[in-house]
Amino acid sequence: MNGYGAISRVYDRLNADIDYAAWADGVENAFLKIMGKKPELVLDLACGTGRMTFELAHRGYDMTGIDLSTDMLMQARDRQKDENILWLNQDMRSFELYGSVGAVVCCLDAVNCLMNIKDVERCFATVHNYLDPGGVFLFDVNTPYKFENIFADNAYILEDEGVYCGWQNYYDEKTGVCDFYLTVFEDDGEGYIRYDETQREKKYSERQLSDALERAGFEVVGFFGGYDMSVPKKDTERWYIAAKKV
Question: Are residues 110 and 84 in the same domain?
Fold first, then answer.
């Protein structure tokens, strides 16, 4: 599993282009299409700094956020005002809740951070265990196309005001694992502080993920190319996956 100690302070600034409101619109639309109603209790699994957790809480859902990184959860807690959100520092493969929930969301390719299919299956089985009958599981992954063509062995620069991130990838075609070597410089007002961190993700095929969901007791609703449940293309970089507990 990945750690997000160094990058947690600037994570949201480096992902400032993500439209969480539009994403949450898609989540709510999926709830209505698949379940025919909006659930009351929702779990945001691998919630990170809680951007989606807060977005859904502001729409009236009773939210729980789980993440393995205490640093990311601290960023979420620091942002919290009067929202009624339960934060839990737990592993997405073996978390425990006080009761079941109507839906589980898991955003920004957290499933790719699981390094083998057995861990993916453990995660899916735990999600299934805590979902109400008929409950929906929505998650996304980086596609094989993205690993092979966008990540590959490429280097990228991410910048925001006061933050600079150099990002070098090393992709192993045999294992399907991509290592990301990140160097972040943050302006603290007196100079720049440097953080170094390594992240790792693993490629999974549509068949692998579908089989794992079915073994866990889910009905696969579909693999989509966007928040709007559109049909994915050959060069789609992210699959949005919907499954229903049966």
Answer: yes
**Residue 55 phi, psi dihedral angles, 5° rounding:** -60, -45
Q: HSE (CB half, 13 Å, CA atoms) of 25?
A: 7
On whether both 220 and 197 belong to a single domain, the answer is no
Whether residues 170 and 128 fall in one domain: no
Residue 4: inside a domain, yes or no? Answer: no
Residue-wise pLDDT tens digits, 18-69: 899 999 999 999 999 999 999 999 999 999 999 999 999 999 999 999 999 9
**Model-level pTM?**
0.93
Between CA 10 and CA 237, with CA 23 as vertex, the angle to 5 degrees is 80
Looking at the structure of the chain, the number of domains it has is 2
For residues 226 and 167, membership in a common domain is answered with no
- Enclosing domain of residue 166: 145-202
In this structure, are 37 and 150 located in the same domain? Answer: no
